[in-house]
Amino acid sequence: MNFLLIPFTIVLFLSINEIRNFLLFRKSTFLYECCDIKFYRYKDKKDDDNAIAVTSIFFGNAIILLSDHVNDSVIYHEYGHLRQREEVYTALFLLGILFSIAFQSYPFLLPVLLLSFRFFFMHLERSADLYAYKVYNTRYEPKHPERPKNRIERLKAWLFDSHAPDWVRIKDEYYNERKNIIYLFLKDIL
């Protein structure tokens, strides 16, 4: 096994994150700074009531607003992400190590590894929702709360969105810390 691939892969994953951050900042306008958090507005405004939390080694903590009318619950959710800086960088570091080992020795494990990290990052999204709920008493306000009857459609919603589906995020059970994201996934799919 070539051990030089491990630091290369770690640097690759960390670099991808920082390049993404740089591109976001390049297309954003600075608004103000409050409590060591810089607020920016994305230049190509969207109609989406959303924001992006950025934790960066080079740029610090920031929240980029994607529209002119971002409500408080979205901002509170992003505050939750800014508290997860260590988890994000630890996950990227571990992903680099495990990805390089699996790539060299056990390539059949790559889909399992990527799916595991997919659920970990979905867990981080849920933790940000729980933070907003516990600290600011706000919940996610869904745009599409209808649950599809087709299991394939539900599975696609779980796999191709960064958050749990809207029909799961509106339930009281989602805000119960004792239920983990895999339990909520299995209950919804099965």
UniProtKB/TrEMBL annotation:
This is Conjugal transfer protein. The lineage of its organism: Archaea, Thermoproteota, Thermoprotei, Sulfolobales, Sulfolobaceae. The chain crosses the membrane at residues 6-23, 90-117. It comes from the Archaea. The keyword Membrane applies. Keywords: Membrane, Transmembrane, Transmembrane helix.
